[in-house]
Amino acid sequence: MATVCFATLFVVLPPVVVVASPGLDEEAFVCRARIESRLAETMQGKFEFFLTEGLEGDPPAGRFVITIDHDYTSGLEAVALGAGESFWLQGSLMDRDTYYGEQYLFFGYPQLFVSQVKGGLFWPSQVARLRSLYAAPLEAPLSVYLIGAFPFMEEYSSRTWALVIARFVLVFAAVAAAVLYRRRRRRWMPGLVWVLGAYVVASVVLAVPGL
C-alpha cells in the first residue's frame, strides 16, 4: 500500500506543480491563433512569417503577424505551420528598434516573435520543468559533490546554496535511515519503502524552488 501511495504521489505531484505555476513569461502575449497565410521567409527558411487571427487568450490584435525562428521557437515539431492550422503560442511584441536586421520583415500588423508553441497538453517550457522534477531523485546525490565544489564557484545565490545543503542533508538522511533500519530489522520491507518514498517526494519538493 505504501509503495502504491508513494508511486502515485511521485507521478501526480510534478504535473500539479507545473500546472499550478506554469512559469510563462508574464510580459509575453499568450493566445491561440489560426494561420491565415504564409507571408514570407528569410535566411533560407530559418525565419518564417505568418499572418494569423487571434482566437483565444491575449492576442496583440484581432489579426497579427507571427515570426517563427526555427532555431529558437520551441515546440514546432508538435504543430503544423499551414493555412487554417491553429495552436497556442507565446511571444513578445516586435519593433524595428529591437528587432533590426535584414532577417526581420514587418508587414504593417502587430507582430510577435514566438518563443514557444503548444501542440499538446503542456507547453515546451512545462515539459522541461516536468523532466527536471522527475529527474530530481537522481540528481539529488550530485549535492554530495556540490557541497564541496559550490563555495568555490564564481556565481551562486544564497537560495541556491541553501538548496544544495538541503539536498545534501536529504541524501545522507535517507542513507542513514536505510542503514539504521537494516541493522535493526532482518527485512528491508516495508521500512525501505518509507525511506525511499520519503526521499523521492522530498527531492521533488526541493527541486520546485529551482524551476
What is this entry, summarized?
This protein is of the alpha+beta class and 211 residues long.
- Number of separate domains: 2
Task: Report the β-strand fraction as a percent range.
Answer: 15-25%
Q: Helicity level, as a percent range?
A: 40-55%
Stretches where pLDDT falls below 50 for ≥5 residues?
none
Kindly state the number of beta strands. 5
Which sheet architecture does the biggest sheet show? 5 strands, mixed, barrel
Classification by helices and strands: alpha+beta
The spatial strand order of the largest sheet comes to: 1-2-3-5-4
Distance between the termini: 31 Å
Molecular shape: elongated
Characteristic terms for this protein:
alpha+beta, OB fold (Dihydrolipoamide Acetyltransferase, E2P), 2 domains, five-stranded mixed barrel, elongated, 211 residues, 41% helix, 5 helices, 5 strands
